[in-house]
Amino acid sequence: MTTLLTPRHLGAIVAEKGLAHCLATLVAYLEQDFARWGEFDKTARVANHSAEGVIELMPISDAELYTFKYVNGHPKNFKVGLPTVMAFGVLARVDTGTPVLLSELTLTTAMRTAATSVMVAKKLARPESRTMALIGNGAQSEFQALAFHLLLGIDALRVYDIDPQATAKLVANLQDVAPALRITTCASTAEAVRGADIVTTVTADKTNATIITPDMLEPGMHINGVGGDCPGKTELHADVLRAGSVFVEYEPQSRIEGDLQQMPADFAVTEFWRVLEGSAPGRTSPTQVTVFDSVGFALEDFSALRLLRDLALELGLGDRISLVPEMADPRNLFGQLGLRGVAAEAAADLARVSAHVRAALAA
Ligand SMILES: NC(=O)c1ccc[n+]([C@@H]2O[C@H](COP(=O)([O-])OP(=O)(O)OC[C@H]3O[C@@H](n4cnc5c(N)ncnc54)[C@H](O)[C@@H]3O)[C@@H](O)[C@H]2O)c1
Description:
The structure is a single chain. By secondary structure, this protein is of the alpha/beta class. It folds into 2 domains: 2-107 and 301-321, ornithine cyclodeaminase, domain 1; 127-295, 3-Layer(aba) Sandwich (Rossmann fold). It is built from 11 helices and 17 strands. The protein has helices spanning 7-17, 19-34, 106-124, 141-152, 164-177, 189-193, 238-243, 251-257, 272-277, 298-315, 340-362, and strands spanning 2-5, 46-49, 54-61, 65-73, 87-93, 99-104, 131-135, 156-160, 182-185, 198-201, 208-212, 222-225, 234-236, 245-248, 270-271, 290-293, 319-321. Strands 9-8-7-10-12-16-14-15 form an 8-stranded parallel β-sheet. The chain has a 7-stranded mixed β-sheet with strand order 2-3-4-5-6-1-17. Strand 3 (54-61) and strand 4 form a beta hairpin. The radius of gyration is 25 Å and the shape is elongated. Nicotinamide-adenine-dinucleotide binds next to helix 3 and strand 11.
């Protein structure tokens, strides 16, 4: 049997364990998996592009588990009442290929992206960081704000979106759950980033946007660039990348999809797992500008699916479904169709018809 987790189950998990606990545990699972980077069979995701967006498959495995995520990115989806990003995924056993878990990953993607941002900022942002600018106040934004507030001590948020309704929604949601977070609504990106220790960009547009320009940089800033994650879709001016030290998840994928796509092939970047491992430096001075050019890598969904499997088991949550046939004789797949009686009837019908046809031809 396969366990099915729907968004309803995800809500139950978060209600039971608490959002802070879920995000903190997710960071721990991510750190465990990024620390054993070499054990994974990795590949850049497979993307099918259209005029409106992209649909991607993100597979990865270690010796025991295989996972994949299906995810889309359609920035104009809100016009037809759909989210920009929707996702689901599977966790399977490598030894037999059995699908163990089939799960919603739309809510989970928002949580794992925020947890990844925090994992990276823990190493790269200045430890005394307290103020974050949050540019783009859509579906992902509350998760980013809360992860930084709950896990990294961010207590002041400066928010901006070209759509004031998105900002109003963000502020209303956060006021409910994080009363200690001071939120300032700003009139522009430039105003929001002024004086911020961390700048998170999480905008959606199918274009090469320049949300952050070099004149907005201040010494010691950490840029958490989340929204530039597809060919032809960037958020950071090329000179922002030149001005900072750039960190990525999986370089072959980030060169295609990240803000990094604007840079020459030999532009130096550091894969974050090296910082975690200690074989590459993270922040080297309080004035250095650090940039996390986040695109979202399959390993993050691997960690998230692993956590969901463990929490579903612990809490006894999820529907048990027969996603693949369960057979007394695994080689009698045809028997699963239950056609044997039907097939006999069909054969008799066929015999009657062909006798009739033969008789007609002979007449
Ligand atoms: N790096 C990752 O791992 C990762 C994971 C999930 C989503 N994403 C990306 O993050 C982005 C946001 O996703 P979402 O689900 O929140 O989308 P969304 O459509 O719900 O929200 C995007 C918001 O950005 C705003 N926006 C667009 N252009 C802007 C601009 N120039 N200045 C300020 N605000 C602007 C929109 O008005 C909207 O409110 C998408 O591009 C998505 O692909 C990345």
